[in-house]
Amino acid sequence: MDTSDASGTAAASTALLTDQYELTMLAAALTDGSADRRCSFEVFARRLPNGRRYGVVAGTGRLLDALADFRFGEAELAVVARFLDDRTLEWLRGYRFGGDIDGYREGDLYFPGSPILSVRGSFAECVVLETLILSILNHDSAIASAAARMVSAAGDRDMIEMGSRRTHELAAPASSRAAYLAGFDATSNLEAVRRFGVPGAGTSAHAFTLLHSGPDGADEAAAFRTQIEALGLGTTLLVDTYDIAKGVATAIEVAGPGLGGVRIDSGDLGVLARQVRDQLDALGATGTRIVVSGDLDEYAIASLRAEPVDVYGVGTSLVTGSGAPTAGMVYKLVEVDGTPVAKRSSHKESRGGAKSAVRLARPTGTIVEEIVYPMAGPAPEPDGFEARDLSVPLVRGGRVLDDRPTLRESRDLVARGLVSLPWEGLKLSAGEPAIPTTFLQ
In the list 83, 107, 184, 353, which could disulfide-bond 340, CB 3.0-4.6 Å? Predict the structure, then answer.
């Protein structure tokens, strides 16, 4: 299996992207002989973030890549040797996941209790994957779920992800990928462009306009003229460094009516967008697009839907999940040697047994219910509805299957899923999940 990244260099091990207790539990299981018991673990979210009506599964592709690199070399063993015995170290030295994984397609919707991922194998080989699985799925699904709400609020207008400077540098490309999967059109993050093939986009900086200042004051026209000379008429000029009306007038004076776009990054964006549109049209720049940014979230985007905005640039709210920075997914043991097991702790209950799920829809395509049932049992009857199996094979015998979807295909799945929701499922106001989930024993 190729473990090099897009640059052609050897990929780093993902084995230490984990919590210490997983390896101490492995050591204990090796001690009493329970490490080889056949187990099923399940990833699910007990509930959606407050007020949310659906979630979007994201990160599956990144997870499968990370699984291939979950190897304990000498550098990794040197770290865990501080607290593990020799037998456990030798077991880790030869670790290769050899089990099976099924899961929801990346880009599919999920609801409370959906069996998003099923991991089956020995206790030992499955337990050490908990943190890796949850850290990727919780992060990416949180970003994609927030992004999908923003895309719905924006309608058919373009969306640019601009959140790199508001999150961890290593999380930024993953955030860009999740946003693109959910329907954003481009990202400003170049590592996401390189690594995942997300389309890149950029506008301009206040610093460049301010740079063109001297003893005689600011020279906004010189900044605009240089930018156009370097980047062409299709570029976007930032017009709110000083006075927006003067900035727009200067932009068209320098560029002419063929200017690609102007960007507004501050102020009352709705009022300003109307004023700028009127001004641009009066100057003959009817094709010049208006890009707005500045602390946008799905609610702000929805409030601007009636305004003449062409492109939204979203940063902080997107990469922080717009108030829900984690999807709240958990990884629980649900079956041991064919016997269902369940956690009964108050408010943290789990349902025993390995599970599959189907989603029922009307002939129009509108989904009405999700049914979760025992994996070993027959699928439920659709009772006149159209049924779609939700879990698909991802890994067999430790080998990642070759027919996983591309990022573009997963993006299309998100778009189809949003269209399939009942109309109330797209509301931004707080409410119950868009469809009910029924659990069969």
Answer: 353
**Whole-angstrom distance, CA of residue 334 vs CA of residue 343:** 8
List the chain domain ranges.
20-143+326-439, 203-323
203-323 fold: TIM Barrel (3.20.20)
What is 20-143+326-439's CATH number? 3.20.140.10
Burial 261-290 (b: 16+ CB within 10 A, else e): bbbbbeeebbebbbbbbebbeebebeebbb
Please state the φ and ψ torsions of residue 425, each to the nearest 5 degrees.
-70, -15
What is the C-alpha to C-alpha distance for residues 406 and 413, in angstroms, rounded to an integer? Answer: 11
pTM of the predicted model, to two decimals?
Answer: 0.94
pLDDT digits (tens, 9 = 90+) for 246-273: 999 999 999 999 999 999 999 999 999 9
Count other C-beta atoms under 10 Å from residue 83's C-beta.
11
The strand pairing partners of 298, in sequence order, are none
Backbone torsion region of residue 121, taken as left when φ is above 0, otherwise alpha when ψ lies between -120 and 50, otherwise beta: left
Strand partners, 361: 367, 386
